Automatic annotation (TrEMBL), chain B:
It is a multi-pass membrane protein. The gene is PIGS. The keyword Glycosyltransferase does not apply. It comes from Gorilla gorilla gorilla (Western lowland gorilla). This is Phosphatidylinositol glycan anchor biosynthesis class S. It comes from the Eukaryota. InterPro entries: PtdIno-glycan_biosynth_class_S. It is found in: Endoplasmic reticulum membrane. The keyword Ligase does not apply. GO terms for biological process: attachment of GPI anchor to protein; GPI anchor biosynthetic process.
Length: 476, 555
């Protein structure tokens, strides 16, 4: 998963209230946080999350007309600082103060993983949802390969990762915190050391696992005033064992199979590694129209048996107008692999519809998996305003399971690509054939034909006569 | 035997010649046109002659003026002649290919009873209130009331009065040449209220050759179907200033009425934003005498660019954007003043940039720092800000201060901040500008299509061109008959259709197949076919000439 993945700038318009709070917060409040998770391999994952909410009534009516709801996806975009600049402009403190100081493009794009997102959604302001606020959440996750850049050392610091340190909090933020994941190491203080020592720690159940975080609060005046800047460092006292990270309960894989340029098959593998619980998964797939899906070939098998989805919504594609939309609710049995496959035929495009480099292939958007994954540890319901941001994007409604949305990898499919000089070749060949036929025809019709008197002579005749003379037969 | 052979050969030669001639005939008569027809690009027919006719279009702008004479305004025997109509026409000298004529059609008539009554009241405002109610005047038309020379309706030293709507009052005269004298005064007033050379020159500023006044004339935004207005509060120092502004209320109270009055000229959308840490591009200078900072006039052009990258509104808009920035200087640079050419501080502490918007510097009162700790809460006085922004908005829309004739009283502005005749004047100017734009677009499209024969002209492009031409003609006709509202609508249609046609992507489809490449492709066909035909034609021609000469020689 640490492999380079294309940046997916997802503008996710989650409609429908996400949660609620009791106290009336101030207008335009900003909360920002940075979660740093050291991985056993020596990589470091850093996730920024900024939330701006404003209580202006942007949408007068509470109801959304679902007729106007659209799902759009751009399967691939080349990563570039141009993706970061407009994103940074949406932050109230831009990149002048607070956590956003760390957002330095040349470091963020030299990472092994980069994911950037913008979420806009209405949130209920009270329990009965009589009024709503709007929430703008911006998240940015990067994974630094500290092991390689640090010459074999797995220690890291803010300065080493971002080449900046934190100097002052954003004056507009009502909360500005850095969380460092110290879950497996906090029992004994012998494996690692975090510097400066955190003032408080925070414990909660995140995605079904119990986690402990060290908290650095930038608004706490003592935190920065001591040294004018805050450079959080982590030092390993004993090198960590390279244990495999725990496998998540739900993960997925997608690939395209088949040979030739006519037909193929899209397959999605859904893994449920939970030892004893089955759970349903909502699978959303959009396939471009130029892959013509054969819906009768849709097969879903798990553990060798056919698995009938409890709900299917299929909207067929229209050429050049809309893609295929396939949505299914599939029950994943405990500890199983479910394979969803569907065959398709590749369509021929018009010659102006090909992309500039058509032999590279065409990208097919990832499928989206949404699931309530059962949790091993019971979590208490989230208090919307109190809990950290990384825990409240998808709030837990009841403690026994948690919400996960997964995007599979985008696919690259080759389409039958014509030789683009073909029109020229065809014209040239046709012209030549026509010209050759025409030439002989013309010759035949316009030539003057004479009747030649047979004349003595010719090498063959002379030769024949020589032989005839030798044989004593009269010559020809 | 030899004779028979020669005869047969001759027959054969003649047949061959006929066959060759037939080949040539088929290739030229049938082959060439067939090839031409099948490889032709589709080009719908366009009204080229009408488009070139648009260039020589004569615009006649007619302003219908109703002139109402009260009882004692002119001598009695002159009153007997009423009603009648006088036309005052004048060509506006502009260095532009279109001839523009301005025509004031003055319909003289006597006052009706209720008008008499109204005009004999004590003050102009009262009279206006009484006259106002019954009739709704058409856009672009004017009504001028001529009152008696000694009427107390106007102050004694004033000869005329221009009202906030489409009415004006002119003092009459008891003179033999009364109509002539009054006519001249009426034209003066009517010009101030509708069309002057300046208004039209400003409207056509983009199409006229540059002169020294053009910078001033190019200040207003170009005519468009809609406009987007963005108010931004720039707070570069949120650590010291906690700035609040009631922009919603201010827009509702001051901007919206003005835009409602202007709504005939386009669609407007208003939005606002607060930007933190948005700095100006220049460092202000410190003036130790007044212990304040100042920006001099030369540095103002450098102020906008760094800020503009943060504004970001123009990226999401179809229409031109007008930006109004309220800049609260950081604590280290306050108070901040803008200096004019002579080094004196500008009274409003604001400036505007042509076709872009305005910037106002809002200094925080120094008293607020004394008592409290940072950040200081600052409530922006929106009345002061909006006064400046509305004045800039008027300028940027090209609603200049009217040029009032001497001894003329101008009424106070209406509550919307826009007089009805000012709107009319804007519509006149915008109609003329739209017509000029549409004509230019159509002409260059026609030129382009004429020059490049490879461009496909689809039927829908052609229909847009026809629509645009018809709309230009309709608009010109409506202008000539004095129907301003419909003329303006038609001129907008003309611009929309002409731009749609000009920017249609289908025009680009075959642009990358130049003629020389096409012929290179066809050479394998043309060369082997043409060479035998041409050679045999040459041979036949030479033989025929020889056979014609022979008999001559024997004779």
């Amino acid at each position: 998963m640490a492999a380079a993945m294309p940046l997916a700038l997802l503008v996710l318009l989650l409609l429908g209230p996400g949660g609620w709070c009791l106290a009336e917060p101030p207008r335009d409040s900003l909360r920002e946080e940075l979660v740093i998770t050291p991985l056993p391999s020596g990589d470091v994952a850093a996730t920024f999350q900024f939330r701006t909410r404003w209580d202006s009534e942007l949408q007068r009516k509470g109801d959304t007309d679902h007729y106007f709801l659209r799902y759009a996806v751009l399967p691939r975009e080349v990563v570039c600082t141009e993706n970061l600049t407009p994103w940074k402009k949406l932050l109230p403190c831009s990149s002048k103060a607070g956590l956003s100081v760390l957002l330095k493009a040349d470091r963020l794009f030299h990472t092994s993983y980069h994911s950037q997102a913008v979420h806009i959604r209405p949130v209920c302001r009270n329990a009965r949802c009589t009024s709503i606020s709007w929430e703008l959440r911006q998240t940015l996750s990067v994974v630094f390969d500290a092991f390689i850049t640090g010459q074999g050392k797995k220690d890291w610091s803010l300065f080493r990762m971002f080449s900046r340190t934190l100097t002052e909090p954003c004056p507009l933020a009502s909360e500005s915190r850095v969380y460092v994941d110290i879950t497996t190491y906090n029992q004994d203080n012998e494996t690692l050391e975090v510097h400066p020592p955190p003032t408080t720690t925070y414990q909660d159940v995140i995605l079904g696992a119990r986690k402990t975080y060290a908290i650095y609060d930038l608004l706490d005046t003592a935190m920065i005033n001591n040294s004018r800047n805050l450079n959080i460092q982590l030092k390993w006292k004993r090198p960590p064992e390279n244990e495999a990270p725990p496998v998540p309960f739900l993960h997925a894989q997608r690939y395209v199979s088949g040979y030739g340029l006519q037909k193929g098959e899209l397959s999605t593998l859904l893994y449920n590694t939970h030892p004893y619980r089955a759970f349903p998964v909502l699978l959303l797939d959009t396939v471009p129209w130029y892959l013509r899906l054969y819906v009768h070939t849709l097969t879903i098998t798990s553990k060798g048996k056919e698995n009938k989805p409890s709900y299917i919504h299929y909207q067929p594609a229209q050429d050049r107008l809309q893609p295929h939309l396939l949505e299914m609710l599939i029950q994943l049995p405990a500890n199983s692999v479910t394979k969803v496959s569907i065959q398709f035929e590749r369509a021929l495009l018009k010659w102006t519809e090909y992309t500039p480099d058509p032999n590279h292939g065409f990208y097919v958007s990832p499928s989206v998996l949404s699931a309530l994954v059962p949790s091993m540890v019971a979590a208490k319901p989230v208090d919307w305003e109190e809990s950290p941001l990384f825990n409240s994007l998808f709030p837990v409604s009841d403690g026994s399971n948690y919400f996960v949305r997964l995007y599979t990898e985008p696919l690259l499919v080759n389409l039958p690509t014509p030789d683009f000089s073909m029109p020229y070749n065809v014209i040239c060949l046709t012209c030549t054939v026509v010209a050759v036929c025409y030439g002989s025809f013309y010759n035949l019709l316009t030539r003057t034909f004479h009747i030649e008197e047979p004349r003595t002579g010719g090498l063959a005749k002379r030769l024949a006569n020589l032989i005839r003379r030798a044989r004593g037969v009269p010559p020809l | 035997m030899a004779a028979a052979g020669a005869a047969a050969t001759d027959l054969e030669v003649a047949r061959g010649r006929r066959a060759a001639l037939f080949f040539a005939a088929v290739a030229i008569v049938l082959g060439l046109p067939l090839w031409w027809k099948t490889t032709e690009t589709y080009r719908a027919s366009l009204p080229y002659s009408q488009i070139s006719g648009l260039n020589a279009l004569q615009l006649r702008l007619m302003v219908p003026v109703t002139v109402v004479f009260t009882r004692e305004s002119v001598p009695l025997d002159d009153q007997e002649k009423l009603p009648f109509t006088v036309v005052h026409e004048r060509e506006i000298p502009l260095k532009y290919k279109m001839k523009i004529k301005c025509r004031f059609q003055k319909a003289y008539r006597r006052a009706l009873d209720h008008e008499e009554e109204a005009l004999s009241s004590g003050s102009v405002q009262e009279a206006e209130a009484m006259l106002d109610e019954p009739q709704e005047q058409a856009e672009g038309s004017l009504t001028v009331y001529v009152i008696s020379e000694h009427s107390s309706l106007l102050p004694q030293d004033m000869m005329s009065y221009i009202g906030p709507k489409r009415t004006a009052v002119v003092r009459g005269i008891m003179h033999r040449e009364a109509f002539n004298i009054i006519g001249r005064r009426i034209v003066q007033v009517a010009q101030a209220m509708s069309l002057t050379e300046d208004v039209l020159a400003a409207a056509l500023a983009d199409h006229l050759p540059e002169d020294k006044w053009s910078a001033e004339k190019r200040r207003p935004l170009k005519s468009s179907l809609g406009y987007e207005i963005t108010f931004s509060l720039l707070n570069p120092d949120p650590k010291s200033h906690d700035v609040h502004w009631d922009i919603e209320g201010a827009v509702r109270r001051y901007v919206q009425p003005f835009l409602n009055a202007l709504s005939a000229a386009g669609n407007f959308s208003v939005d606002s934003q607060i930007l933190y840490y948005a700095m100006l591009g220049v460092n202000p200078r410190f003036d130790s005498a007044s212990s304040s900072y100042y920006l001099d006039m030369h540095s103002l052009p450098h102020v906008i660019n760094p800020v503009e990258s943060r504004l970001g509104s123009s990226a999401a808009s179809l229409y031109p954007v007008l930006n109004f920035l309220l800049y609260v200087p950081e604590l280290a640079h306050s108070p901040l003043y803008i200096q004019d050419k002579d080094g004196a501080p500008v009274a409003t502490n604001a400036f505007h940039s042509p076709r872009w918007g305005g910037i106002m510097v809002y200094n925080v009162d120094s008293k607020t720092y004394n008592a409290s700790v940072l950040p200081v809460r600052v409530e922006v006085d929106m009345v002061r800000v909006m006064e400046v922004f509305l004045a800039q908005l008027r300028l940027l829309f090209g609603i200049a201060q009217p040029q009032v004739p001497p001894k003329c009283l101008l009424s106070g502005p209406k509550s919307e901040g826009l007089m009805t005749w000012e709107l009319d004047r804007l519509l006149w100017a915008r109609s003329v500008e739209n017509l000029a734009t549409a004509t230019t677009t159509l002409t260059s499209l026609a030129q382009l299509l004429g020059k490049i024969s490879n461009i496909v002209i689809k039927d829908d492009v052609a229909s847009e061109v026809y629509k645009a031409v018809a709309a230009v003609q309709k608009s010109a006709e409506e202008l000539a008959s004095g129907h301003l509202a419909s003329a303006f609508v038609a001129s907008q249609e003309a611009v929309t259709s002409s731009e749609l046609a000009f920017f249609d992507p289908s025009l680009l489809h075959l642009l990358y197949f130049p003629d020389d490449q096409k012929f290179a492709i066809y050479i394998p066909l043309f060369l082997p076919m043409a060479v035998p035909i041409l050679l045999s034609l040459v041979k036949i021609f030479l033989e025929t000439r020889k056979s014609w000469r022979k008999p001559e020689k024997t004779d």
